[in-house]
Specification:
Blueprint lengths: L3 E5 L4 H11 L6 E5 L5 E5 L7 E5 L6 H17 L4 E6 L18 H12 L3 E5 L13 E5 L2 H10 L5 E5 L5 H11 L3 E8 L6 E7 L6 E9 L3 H12 L4 E9 L5 H7 L4 E5 L13 E4 L2 H12 L13
Parallel strand pairs: 1-4, 4-5, 5-6, 6-7, 8-9, 8-11, 11-12, 12-13, 13-14
Antiparallel strand pairs: 2-3, 9-10
Helix pairs in contact: 1-8, 2-3
The structure holds ribose-5-phosphate (R5P).
Ribose-5-phosphate binds next to strand 11 and helix 6.
Amino acid sequence: MKDIKIFACNTAEKFTQEVCNCLNLKMGEKDSYKFKNDNNFVQFKESVRNQDVYLIQTTEVPVNERIMELLITIDAAKRAAAKRITVVLPYFIYSRTDKKDQPRVPITSKLIAKLIETAGADRVITCDLHNSAIQAFFEIGCDRLTGSYLLADYFKKKKLKDMVVVATDAGSSKKAYKYSKLLNCPMALIDKRRSNNDDKAVAANIIGDVKDKTALILDDEISTGGTLIEAINICKNHGAKEIYAGATHGIFAGDAIERLDKSCAKEVVVTNTIPIDDNKKIDKIKVISIAPLFAEAIRRINEGQPLGDLFLYEK
Ligand code: R5P
């Protein structure tokens, strides 16, 4: 690889180190701290002039702080004459606010895209967007990786019997269909409704057969866990023998962990797009690393090679 430097924004050091280890590269050095007046400050401790720079930011709570750190870091790299700045955002925050589906509401994911672009990024690499149309919110290139192969592979290796992939709502049905193809099993679909903006989802019905089967509930993200718990319960009530769950992004907001721990799911598998606090780690939750996939995307971009087979196309 040529003229490449990879830096971590504040809380992304662990993930970035993993990416650098995969590529046999030393993580770039930079300083970042806060002044007493709460203003953030960033300084690269090595030259980035004419370099292919990758800025990795994970977006755990407080997310607004994370986005500001990222914008300031992009600005610093741009002013230090980086040749190309690629922002690596394993989880794209505000991705659920992606349309004007009610009066007087924002499209915050578009705003975030604009901010990243305005700060000076040339390209973005992200993963399993809540809505793939978010890619079009960027005028710059946006590469959308997927955790699907990783999750499908994990469950394939478990050799679960009589598997049925369960989509948590109509929006995730296309993805569930792809999982069912990857895992060579049937699928079922939950009729999920959200009545307002209070994070509460209700599973009204299930279309498809889960009776005496191993239900594998797959989604893009687990936030409050409401959707997943509803899905687990409806699968149980419809006679599923065992229930597993998987998602690319494990946000685990509020008391999601406690509720999942009490649920009858056998295992909940997520990737490490969002770092999980030690106090949130329980036996039922298994985290698999997606850092090698990001490392591979970075290597290919730097070497000018195609990324196509790292995406899950709508074939
Ligand atoms: C929704 O459309 C998504 O695919 C997820 O189902 C949702 O973001 C999960 O959120 P929560 O865990 O808060 O129900």
